[in-house]
Amino acid sequence: MERKEIFSKLNEIFIDVLDLDECNLTDETNANDIEEWDSLSHIQLIVAIEKRFGIKFTSLEIMKWRNVGELVDSILSKK
């Protein structure tokens, strides 16, 4: 799976979970960039991402992410 495909799936998840009209995630996107992305929705995003990609993240992995690019790196490391 390539980064482009992962970003496409993540955009769909963010639109669905955060109830957005559109979403254009980049490597640098973080919670400060999306108003609807708060601590509760963060958990909902993680659960949806794990389900969609059939993977599980550790708490340590999740805490280390500073942006979507690092999330994508974690997904790639598990595929």
Give structural attributes.
mainly alpha, globular, Non-ribosomal Peptide Synthetase Peptidyl Carrier Protein, Chain A
What does this structure look like?
The protein has 79 residues and is mainly alpha-helical. 61% of the residues lie in helices and 0% in strands. It has 4 helices and no strands. The protein has helices at residues 3-18, 39-53, 59-64, 68-78. α1 (3-18) crosses α2 (39-53). The model has no long low-confidence stretch (mean pLDDT 96).
Briefly say what this structure is.
The chain is an all-alpha fold and 79 residues long. It has four helices and no strands.
Count of discrete domains: 1
CATH architecture: Orthogonal Bundle
Task: Compute the number of strand runs.
Answer: 0
> What would you call the shape?
globular
Amino- and carboxy-terminal Cα gap: 7 Å
Oligomeric state of this protein? single chain
